[in-house]
Amino acid sequence: MREIPIQNRAPRSRRGRIPTGMGMAIAAATIFVGCAKQPTEILTEIRTDPTVPALLVLQYTITSASGPTRTFTSSVVSLAPGDAAAPAPFFFPMTMRMGPLAGWSGAVEITLNGRDWDTDRIIATGTTTAEAVPETSTRATLTLTAVSDPGGGDGGTDGGTDGGTDASSDAGSGADADDDATSDDAPSDS
After folding, report:
1. DSSP state of 135
2. Could you say which DSSP state residue 170 is in?
3. What b/e sequence results for 144-183 when a residue is b if at least 16 CB atoms lie within 10 Å of its CB, and e otherwise?
4. pTM exceeds 0.85, yes or no
């Protein structure tokens, strides 16, 4: 009897091959990812002066110098571990990525406000200018300073008795008297 030779390899299967349609899709995705555009953003180094209290919430607004009605606003909350009631404050100096500013180009103004965790009042503020360059990360530096009277010029938050926005009807109540009033705001006697 004659022995028939047996091949010791497994039969070929299509498992290791990528179907032609799928291969084309992977190639297209690779090309697409390779052509992805870098976002237009501003890396802002934030410093504080010694008078700034601990900050847990930062809100920034970027305004185009060429079109002041074009703005981008965002808020950031500290993620540093704190107690059960609130996170720990931000550590300064720090760098914050501001954007994306798709389609922006030219001079911009950055306003950064530190807000009180409990009242949402502005307790620190800073402003700087920067340049937005399409598909590029540019850099800016900003210094926060404490707001001298967070109970008065607070950006519209009312701590008075009537629930309105810094209403003059609070005057004399002792709660949030119209601290923002200047001599130009006072009625004349003439």
Report:
1. T
2. G
3. bebbeebbbebeebeebeeeeebeeebeeeeebbbeeeee
4. no
Report d(CA 46, CA 85) in Å as an integer. Answer: 25
- Sign for the CA dihedral angle at 50, 51, 55, 61 comes to negative
Q: What does the DSSP 8-state code read for residue 85?
A: S
**What is the per-residue pLDDT for 19?**
54
Other C-beta atoms lying within 10 Å of the C-beta of residue 95 = 12
**DSSP single-letter state for residue 34:** H
Residue with token string 């009631």: 85
CB contact at 8 A, 96 and 46: yes
| Position 75, amino acid | S
CB of 140 within 8 A of CB of 126?
no
Please state, as a whole number, how many other Cβ atoms lie within 10 Å of the Cβ of residue 22.
10
User: What 3-state class would DSSP assign to 33?
Assistant: helix
Which pLDDT tens digit goes with each residue over 155-188? 444 444 444 444 443 444 344 433 333 334 444 4
